[in-house]
Design a protein that fits this description.
GO molecular function: DNA binding
Oligomer: single chain
Strand content: under 5%
Structural class: mainly alpha
CATH superfamily: Tetracycline Repressor, domain 2
Keywords: DNA-binding
Helix content: over 70%
Largest sheet: none
Organism: Candidatus Rhodobacter oscarellae
Pfam families: TetR_N (PF00440)
CATH class: Mainly Alpha
Number of strands: 0
Number of helices: 9
Number of domains: 1
Protein name: HTH tetR-type domain-containing protein
Distance between the termini: 53 Å
Length: about 170
């Protein structure tokens, strides 16, 4: 709590004015991150998009979400690798975003655009792949370019079509 107060440049007692305990504060941090992710990845203005366009937009927006705020990306990486809340709470925080992608993948499968049932697997896979790829780009001093963005996007889309790739 003292580190949080120091980073926020407030007295430690004032942190407790807003949060009854460290656990409640940590849950609030997860919830804020989950709400931000949902707002970025599941916009309201998609009525005119096909499901494949929605998937591509989801991936584009996820890449942008992680890249545009380094501190948030580091926090997200840490919180996803070292869960500080019970697993059922973690699932709850990201449930709406995961459900959106699972529903989208189900519709894509039902329409024949992807051939496997990826629900339950791909939301975490895509998010983890994007976060990890961008983490290493930052560590290596790389800048986001349209080409890098497309490589990451195409890699995610290829994972959904792995059964259609020629095997060596």
């Amino acid at each position: 709590m003292s580190k949080i107060a120091k980073n926020a440049d407030v007295a430690i007692g004032s942190v407790y004015n807003h949060f009854a305990s460290k656990d409640i504060l940590i849950r609030a941090i997860y919830q804020k991150l989950g709400d931000e992710l949902l707002a970025e990845l599941v916009p309201d203005d998609q009525d005119n998009l096909s499901d494949m366009e929605r998937l591509e937009r989801y991936i584009d927006d996820y890449i942008s979400f992680i890249w545009k705020d380094t501190e948030r990306a580091i926090l997200f990486e840490y919180l996803s690798n070292v869960p500080l809340i019970p697993s059922e709470d973690l699932v709850s925080v990201f449930a709406d975003t995961s459900q959106y992608l699972n529903d989208l993948l189900t519709r894509l499968r039902e329409s024949g655009q992807i051939s496997q049932d990826y629900t339950g697997v791909m939301p975490g896979f895509i998010g983890g792949a994007i976060r990890n790829a961008l983490k290493w780009q930052r560590i290596n001093g790389k800048q986001m370019t349209p080409e890098l963005h497309q490589v990451i996007k195409k890699t995610c889309l290829s994972a959904l079509r792995f059964d259609q790739v020629d095997r060596v």
